């Protein structure tokens, strides 16, 4: 089971901190329902863990972006899941991690 959170950065950028004690298989989804991440970014902190083996924050800066994280284990931590959508809905990339991930627009 997991949770999907609508994030509204219309007024200002803000930070989401991933859970401190996640369990294997835990899913967290974040999406830009107001279409304002490019103006006011959403910052995701891994909270002492890593996302794709990177302990730095992830900055979401694509309007309409949706990203989901799944916790795999204490060894591999959080992984980015493939986001729903079609190739035609890909509108930007972010390179805050060691790899480049496509973020899907809605």
Number of strands: 9
Alpha carbon gap, first and last residue: 23 Å
Low-pLDDT regions: 85-106
Q: Judging from the principal axes of the Cα atoms, what is the shape?
A: elongated
Q: Give me the number of helical elements.
A: 0
Strand content: 35-45%
Spatially, the strands of the biggest sheet line up as 1-3-6-7
- On the 0-100 scale, what is the average pLDDT? 82
The structural class is: mainly beta
Order of helices and strands: EEEEEEEEE
Helix coverage percent: under 10%
User: Biggest sheet, open or closed, and with what strands and sense?
Assistant: 4 strands, mixed
Please describe the structure with a list of short key phrases separated by commas or semicolons:
about 110 residues; mainly beta; 4-stranded mixed beta sheet; 3-stranded mixed beta sheet; 9 strands; about 0% helix; disordered C terminus
What does this protein look like?
This protein has 106 residues and is mostly beta strands. It has no helices and 9 strands. The protein has strands spanning 2-7, 14-17, 27-32, 42-45, 58-60, 66-73, 77-80, 90-94, 101-104. The protein is elongated. The two termini are 23 Å apart. The model is unreliable at 85-106 (pLDDT under 50).
Describe the secondary structure blueprint for this structure.
Elements: E1 2-7, E2 14-17, E3 27-32, E4 42-45, E5 58-60, E6 66-73, E7 77-80, E8 90-94, E9 101-104
Parallel strand pairs: 1-3, 2-4
Antiparallel strand pairs: 3-6, 4-5, 6-7, 8-9
